Amino acid sequence: MAFDERAADHLLLMREEHGNVAPALVSKGEEIGDVRLDIPYQLITILETIYSWVPTGKIAVITRRCDEKALTELTKRGYVDEKRMVKIGLACSKEQIARCRCSDPVPSKVDFGEPNTPAPRDDLSDKLAQMSVEDRMKFWVRQFRKCNKCFACTHNCPVCFCDDCVLEERTFVAEQGIPPGLSFHMIRSYHLIDKCVECGECERSCPGEIPLLTLRKMLAKDIKEVYGFVPGDPKTVSPLNTTLEGEPMEDECDEC
Amino acid sequence: MSVKHVLTTCPYCGTGCNFFLQVADGRLVGVVPCKTDEISLGRLCIKGYSAHSFVQHPDRLTHPMIRKSGQLRQVTWDEAMDRIVGEVTRIIEKYGPDSVVVLASAKCTNEENYLIQKMARAAIGTNNVDHCARLCHASTVTGLLYSFGSGAMTNTTPEFDNAECILVTGSNTLEAHPIVGARMLRALDKGAKIIVVDPRESPLSRISHISLHQRPGTDIAWINGMIKIILDEGLANEEFIKHRTSAFDELKEAVNEYTPEYVEATTGIPKEKLVEAARVYAKSDKAMIAYAMGITQHSNGTDVVKAIANLAMVTGHIGRESTGVNPLRGQCNVQGACDAGGLPNLYPGYQRVDDQEARMKFQKAWDTKLPEKPGLTLTSAMNEAMAGKVKAMIIFGENFMLSDPDLGHVEEAIKKLEFIAVSDIFLSETAQKAHVVLPAACYAEKDGTFTSTDRAIRVLRKAVDPPGEARSDWTIACDLGKRLGSHGFDFSSPAEVMAEMASVTPQYGGIDFERIDKQVLRWPCPTKEHHGTRILHAQKFTRGLGAFAPVRHAPPKEVPSEEYPFILTTGRNLFQYHTGTMTRRSPKLEREAPEPYVEINKSDAKSLNIADGERVSVSSRRGSIALKARVTDRIIPGSIFIPFHYAEAAANRLTNAALDPISNIPELKACAAKIEKA
């Protein structure tokens, strides 16, 4: 892959380092190295951390479809200046699509990879939907017992950007408990209901391998069915950020 | 503008997770997990995600200091080093080299530990070099050396994934080794049966198949009991016993009295449950044992470890994939600090200092005369200081003023020292007592290697500069070695130090920085062509035949009395780490567990009329501390638990310094205590 210096001043990508795949920000004049597209990092989360340290110039980022949507949610809220961003579209492999049970895998512009068809369904969501309320609850309680409060699900999330995290407030989540109670997971997933782009980073980084993406997919139905809203669309505003008259709020809350 | 992602190794527990430190213009701004790391698989615990946050803390030591009129005052490096060398030389001349004790560090790299022990032996002329492994797995080293011939984890962390049964004892794995715990969860999800034996409930025991609660200090009883059940029910692996082991008859005789009824009376474990656990462990094809401090920190810790080894050998659950005896090492480089010779009786690679041949080898390699007599252990050094025989200590990153048992005694002992020098990253409780304090670089500020609990050599890569004038411990050790008039301390990089260490340490013979930059090698890795070893004792034990040890239950040195009716046990919680110097300066971690507490069972709390959250006083024969009560079902009646992280209510004011005679590990896991309303 070549660095088109006319298009951007910095390039955020994955490359081979020390026998591993590493995220890297390469600036004009620097070697790109051996680019690796087979193991995507959550580059939008990384972009958020380093954005304020890169004050000038255009930043090109390898973006899957979900990354594109995450970037949209960030630019809509004013965290990132859209004009500074250049997207390099990466179409996900069949294997990656299957892993995320992804229904929307092709970026708006494909620069790398072959466009593949979406995954038909999330089998686990279907299975859980068939269960009785008691059994479904039992399933999730069993899963949440594996939670070790590492905060990977928020730490690695591209659309989890509050300055003060509600999960770190004693009112909602007592500080002494592991595993934390059901509310921990419910607050987190509802808090992201109008932002989550289903990149699956929470699930992949969870040491307990809790199926957090399935939890999300089941909740996503609510906001879609009740409000007709799907995150990641630049033209629509979250119903949670809308006035009672249906207008976008002037002072959008930065923290939810 | 500069933004870097630097791949390095976590400074907390011994799992050895790699991650990227995010560096922007010289500031550490975050941690990103490494998805291709074979140990962590791109997962970290909350401590790992916070591993950047203490590094550039304003409390970091930035200049050398010397105590003048009772106050530590800033001086130059030359002044500080001159003072150390002057005092140490004076003390050696007056009292002899064995009056000096050097403490290496499980927080320092392999290269640093190698140089620190070399400095003690070659430059000072004493084998008095030890470190905090004495407090955690000293009895693992002695016990497993006896049974197998090697004191390290027999298998590897990734192998937990495929185990069919995991017996976890004395390890709160999800809190103390979260990413090893994550592997156990993977196995659990795949259908493995997990058995947890612990006086406390833990996040893992709550989702295990079998959870047994023994009274603290009764481990040999339940382990021997399991062995007896296995033998009586014909579940032993006779082929393995016949061809791979020795002294089976002695073992058989020793376990004979441990009937399920006797075990129940001694340990409190219901006999049916013990039988069930013994059957599940013995009948599984791939069964792993994982253990930690709950097994080792007893005044008969070596025997308890041998009992564990007996159990694995009786069933033949060793030497194959996803089996074995797996001591989980608690510090980022406690395995490496032992490997590199930070022990008073062993040179690098576990070669004995009292073995003439080994001594000749090191005398030749270092071109100097070396002392013959094994040195003092950390715990016995305190007693010798009290007796006025130890006069000086040079301490690298050790905080015994919080980590050692019976702190009142430690305090008295170090008052008798004529000189203390401490190299550390913060002004720890121990550094506050020093005559000279040196500012050290932390893990993020230097190159080098750690050895993980599963013997993998993990790489540290420098991400940022140390603060102020702080220096790496390897440069400090070299400088001290040279200033003390010794040669063999001219190294310009950790890579050069590893080259020398590899040349004298058979297990590390094939390790060099170029190889480990790109691949994970586990020792033994004797040559440059060797690919390292995942499973120990595969064809035969390191010592030849595995040695059964006929060990018998003995009660803790201190048992409950009328005045002190509880058994106090100590340990970690998920969010804090050891003496808290790093975690308590990490806001996210401190927020989760900001204050000391004592766990007490609901029924005991009720009879003492103690409410949850109430302030109480806990005392032993050695001291008393005040803290909050956590009334809980997590701990069995009759026992109480206090985490040892908190200086404001230091659990080690209470603990008993009774030592295991073989390994000198103290009995941190059981002493008699009382609890009263404050």
Walkthrough of the structure:
The complex is a heterodimer of chains A (256) and B (678). With 256 residues, chain A is an alpha/beta fold. Chain A folds into 2 domains: 10-100, no CATH class; 123-241. Chain A has 9 helices and 4 strands. Chain A has helices spanning 43-50, 65-76, 94-100, 123-130, 133-144, 152-155, 182-191, 201-205, 212-227, and strands spanning 10-17, 20-27, 59-63, 85-89. In chain A, α2 (65-76) links the parallel β3 (59-63) and β4. Chain A is globular, with a radius of gyration of 19 Å. Chain B has 4 domains: 3-49, ADC-like domains (N-terminal domain of TfIIb); 65-133 and 333-513, Rossmann fold, CATH 3.40.50.740; 154-328, Dimethylsulfoxide Reductase, domain 2 (3-Layer(aba) Sandwich); 566-677, Barwin-like endoglucanases, CATH 2.40.40.20. In chain B, the strands form 7 sheets. Chain B has a 7-stranded mixed sheet with strand order 5-4-18-17-16-6-7. In chain B, α3 runs parallel beside α20 (473-483), α5 crosses α14 (301-315) and α17 crosses α19. The longest helix of chain B is centred in the N-terminal third of the chain and has 19 residues, at 77-95. At the A-B interface, β2 and α1 of A face β1, β2, β3, α1 and α7 of B.
